[in-house]
């Protein structure tokens, strides 16, 4: 064998080792369908949850649904729904309308408190083929879900004077900070930004920041910085590509996630979920307009993309990554081709036409 042949053989051998596939070794019962609780929700909810059911069936995904009709106007989440989520551990839901004023509590908040879904995660990113003002946006907003202004701790002190309490605890602040840094570490993210207003709320937001700093010290490989929430909003709309993972208290996170969603393509394409130690609920990531309007419902033109991408997140949570990849690839292909898009994305397609296009290109 000539000397010139040896380097070539080494190169070929190296290429063979690098391109060799890794085989997933299934355990007995891995393919058994997992039961998932499905809440259809208000407005466009039945349309988009129906889209998820259709696509899952077309994929032959190992999922079975326990379906419930829940409306935001109900006084409380029915006990059988909570029992189902506790039993199945996982839920996917359409939007639940929260009446403005009137003292009616939010069923979304009730679900988060009852199941201790302490972390809300919204992934805001550019989709190929969908034109937006900014490029290279890929932001994950991780929001504390159980305390702060959204706790609903309000009362009327005297007629005409209402007191609303903002409660921040060390336990919940540390817990959400750990979740954010663990998420960054496991997903090869480079930076975590804490969003706050500690220059004014020195004790409450100060405690949140103190907790984030202590947790950050345990992750030296991840860059950590802080930003005041009003400056954060300005930076988001001017230079969003500077953000990677953001960790926030409850109220700020809702505002930041919806702003980031608008920058990256709109609420109709942003996936999200609420997770705790034992349970998870997946839903449209950005809350603005999550129940749509009557015209969308009548014309059956709701955008199913956000909930389909949320269901891909759910599949990964259930440890079915290949099904998640197939679904995400099909959704992104349809968006990129641009033939079938709902009105919010510049098209005129119905929900069903988008679903049919996605099922058509499933690998």
TrEMBL record:
SMART domains: Iso_dh
InterPro entries: Isocitrate_DH_NAD, IsoPropMal-DH-like_dom
Highest taxon, organism lineage: Eukaryota
Gene Ontology annotations for the cellular component aspect, listed alphabetically: mitochondrion
Domain Isopropylmalate dehydrogenase-like: 35-358
Coiled-coil annotated residue ranges, if any: none
GO BP field: isocitrate metabolic process; tricarboxylic acid cycle
Compartment(s) of residence: Mitochondrion
One MF term in the entry's GO annotations: isocitrate dehydrogenase (NAD+) activity
Keyword check for Membrane: no
Annotated keywords: Magnesium, Manganese, Metal-binding, Mitochondrion, NAD, Oxidoreductase, Transit peptide, Tricarboxylic acid cycle
Family of the protein in this entry: Belongs to the isocitrate and isopropylmalate dehydrogenases family.
Record NCBIfam families: mito_nad_idh
PANTHER family according to UniProt: DECARBOXYLATING DEHYDROGENASES-ISOCITRATE, ISOPROPYLMALATE, TARTRATE, ISOCITRATE DEHYDROGENASE [NAD] SUBUNIT BETA, MITOCHONDRIAL
Record function comment: Performs an essential role in the oxidative function of the citric acid cycle.
Record protein name field: Isocitrate dehydrogenase [NAD] regulatory subunit 1, mitochondrial isoform X1
Source organism of the structure: Iris pallida (Sweet iris)
């Amino acid at each position: 064998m000539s000397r010139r042949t040896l380097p070539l053989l080494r190169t070929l051998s190296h290429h063979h080792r690098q391109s060799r596939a890794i085989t997933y070794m299934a355990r007995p019962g891995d393919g058994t369908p997992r039961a998932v609780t499905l809440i259809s929700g208000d407005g466009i909810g039945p349309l988009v949850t129906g889209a998820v059911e259709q696509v899952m069936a077309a994929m032959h995904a190992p999922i079975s649904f326990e379906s419930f009709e829940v409306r935001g106007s109900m006084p409380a989440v029915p006990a059988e729904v909570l029992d189902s989520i506790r039993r199945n551990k996982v839920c996917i839901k359409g939007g639940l309308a929260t009446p403005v004023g009137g003292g009616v509590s939010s069923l979304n908040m009730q679900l988060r408190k009852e199941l201790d879904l302490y972390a809300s995660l919204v992934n805001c990113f550019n989709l190929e083929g969908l034109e937006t003002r900014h490029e290279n946006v890929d932001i994950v907003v991780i929001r504390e879900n159980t305390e702060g202004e959204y706790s609903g701790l309000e009362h009327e002190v005297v007629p005409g004077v209402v007191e609303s309490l903002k409660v921040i605890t060390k336990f919940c602040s540390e817990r959400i900070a750990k979740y954010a840094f663990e998420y960054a570490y496991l997903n090869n993210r480079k930076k975590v930004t804490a969003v706050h207003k500690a220059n004014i709320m020195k004790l409450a937001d100060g405690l949140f920041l103190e907790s984030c700093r202590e947790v950050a010290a345990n992750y030296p490989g991840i860059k950590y910085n802080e930003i005041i929430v009003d400056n954060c909003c300005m930076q988001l709309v001017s230079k969003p590509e500077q953000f990677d993972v953001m960790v926030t208290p409850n109220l700020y996170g809702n505002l930041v996630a919806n702003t980031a969603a608008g920058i990256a393509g709109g609420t109709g394409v942003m996936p999200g979920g609420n997770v705790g130690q034992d349970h998870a609920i997946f839903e449209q990531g950005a809350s603005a307009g999550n129940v749509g309007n009557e015209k969308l419902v009548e014309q059956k033109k709701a955008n199913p993309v956000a909930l389909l991408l949320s269901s891909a997140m759910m599949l990964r949570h259930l440890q079915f990554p290949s099904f998640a990849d197939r679904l995400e690839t099909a959704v992104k292909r349809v968006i990129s081709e641009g033939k079938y898009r709902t009105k919010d994305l510049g098209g005129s397609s119905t929900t069903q036409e988008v679903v049919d296009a996605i099922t058509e290109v499933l690998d």
